[in-house]
Fold these 2 entries.
Entry 1:
Amino acid sequence: MAGPTVKVGQVGDPERFTPLWAAYYRFGPPRWEPWLRRSGAGRKLVIGIPLVWLCLFFLAPFFIDFKISFSETRLAMPPYAPLLEWGPDHALSFHLHLANYRFLLSDALYVSSYLYSLKVALISTLLCLLLGYPMAYGIARATPTARNLMLMLVILPFWTSFLLRVYAWMGLLRNNGIINSLLLWLGVIDQPVQMMQTDFAVYVGIVYSYLPFMILPLYTNLEKHDPALLEAAADLGARPMRAFLRVTLPLSFPGIAAGSLLVFIPVIGEYVIPSLLGRPDQLMIGRVLSDEFFSNRDWPVASAVAIAMLALLVVPIVLLQRVQARREEA
Amino acid sequence: MSLPKRSLLVPTALAFGFAFLYVPILSMVFFSFNNSRLVTVWDAANSPTVKWYVALFQNEQILSAAWLSIRIAVLNATGATVLGTFAGLVLARFGRFRGRTLLSAMTTAPLVMPEVITGLSMLLLFVALEQFIGWPAGRGVTTITIAHITFSMSYVTVIVQARLSGFDGALEEAAMDLGARPATVFRRVTLPLILPAILSGWLLAFTLSWDDLVISQFVAGPGSTTLPMVIFSKVRLGVSPDVNALATLMILVVAMGVVLSAVVLRRSERRLERERREALAETA
């Protein structure tokens, strides 16, 4: 069957011979590769995408936060006054409202919750270290099979809901909870011990939730120690305890620092644990911030609380950054 | 080795520590089968029972919140994995460039930043953005997803970076020397190497989002109540037995996932090791 040859749309169809095709025939297909490689555009794109995202959604919010902490509360949406404003006399006015910070310093509630958070964070970091160090040590010294199993057991709770794990302690610590029932049954006590809504419950909840963050960096450090160092110490006559104090402990300092910072920094702003287990009469600063925001709808004061918290955390965060960078180099 | 072998300190700490980590979880599982409404009083006559599981699957509020949380978690995990893989690749392989310190600081800080600060700051950003450019209009799934991606991509970055620093750049350099373009090197060499890390990064990002309460509370709008928000409002009023059932189901899923991924990971490690040995044998 001899039909007319279909030419429409075919490459080289003279009727569709545009300048673009002319260029294509003259120079061949466009060669992006050399241009990409020369200009480094691909490289810049790969660097740029995460960098821009984090600058926009992680870094920029802090500046907005900082700005709003200096503005006045208003009954509007959004409930704060702009810093720069056209006044009634058509003059651009600039309000730097310091009252939020003055308010934080003058009100005993804020100062005491700030100090209380600091105390809770320090003590729970110490408790995590006291429990986590021997555990990490034991895991690092175990046989490979036992080591992998124990590591998995340390990491596993991390994958289950944080909220539900804190909730589990409510069932254990309540007046008619498991621990009290057990102690009553054993006859150790004859009255239930009040454990919920105490400092004790907060420490238990925090140590429980943050223990893996202490164990893992310690383990990574302890596992790398060369046993020859301890043998050398023993050959030189050091008793095991002394060898531990003079060799293992100083060498594990980077692990201790990383673990402690990983616990200390987030605990300062902890919200869920003190809300569910803690005292109603002594709030932590994270709870104060969210109460200001959700209950009082006072965004500027909430921002000022956040900035005050950040001021406390800048040094630990920079330290953590240093420790991590050094660990990467090693 | 340094402590005396007889020392009981380390075994005691290990036993106590693991009991401390697992007794609360096991107690939730145990009492999820309890008949009594008083969560911690075992009603021996009528237990075990699955009535709290039945109640759970009849609770519209919990089911719709769970569905919303799953959708957000999938979106978040996918976005965070792409961005986190880029960041991890850049930090591990791109040497020195302008903004390196900034990028590395911005991937460490979200790991430890108290959630109340991140949540509040993100919300203020979204409000300011809406005021000036009209996007995002209102708060809901979009804002929660963006906020989750921002904090969970750091975890993916750390995992991918750690995996990449486990290999030296020799394989990629070899591919480059053989004339492969950077995109090809990534697709054919780097990506297969870091695939396990990318997978575990995706799963971790999913879990982090699924689990997040504080940041979601700040950036959620009316009508976007995630599962942790429902659980928190229930739990605040006291213990409730259907939450035990929910916890048990979640623990079951996680335990299966962890075991499965450990098996898959070990198998792929072995295959990689075998291929490497075979390649070496061929060259010898």
Entry 2:
Amino acid sequence: MLDDTRETRITPQEPPKRSPWYLLTGAVLGLILGLVYTWLINPVVYESSTPGTLGEADKDVYRLMIAQVYEATGDLGRASLRLALLEDPDPVYALGAQAQRALAAGREAEAHALALLASALQGPPIQQEINTQPPKPTLTDPPTGIPTHTLPAPTTTP
Amino acid sequence: MHKRTWRFVFFTLAILAGFAAGLGYGWGINPVQYHSTGPQALQIDYQTDYILMVAELYQAEGDLAMALARLDFLGNTSPLALMNDAIGYADAQRYASADLGLMRNLAFAVQSALDGLE
């Protein structure tokens, strides 16, 4: 009976080798934490911005200042350079739109300054361009009534 | 060291490496873009030009209260400090003497008004 007994040898099995995915998980977790920190908790603070990055309300204030200075000094070159700082896609349109808003709010002096600069930027008015053309003769009706020029009286021939 | 401890150490190092990469990307490569900053964040040259505009209008209108209100646009800093910074910058950048004169004129008026209040 004892011969039937079999010796069983239990060899210690090595634990299954774990893949290094946990490292990737840690890196992704750290990356997310880093982005949350830099974009939400402690973002970059700009201390040297340009007028083009101002909010719309602040741009309106800046644009109005430019227009009022132009109204006071008449320096169109300087006003154009200053307007360019605001990086408006269409400065004339922006001035016109702001003038409309100012007019609707009853601020006529502001609207006037803005409209004045807008029209100055557009160049001389169309009416002035027409005036530079040679004047066209005006057509008048043919004179009616008694002719002022009479034919000479016919001479009698012998 | 126990194998489990090593795994913990490597996991922590991976998190730190990812965090460092996130800092580099979020601050250096692709920082937050602001589309509407305040006027107090304007560069000194733009602030100086704004103050020059205020001085030009003060020269034309002679309204000191309005000039102070316009200077308030640049933030809660003292108007005199703003003026002094602007004049210092304009002087260093060799602004035209007429422009410098306008700014000094406004600074003098602001200083006189503040002295009158004290």
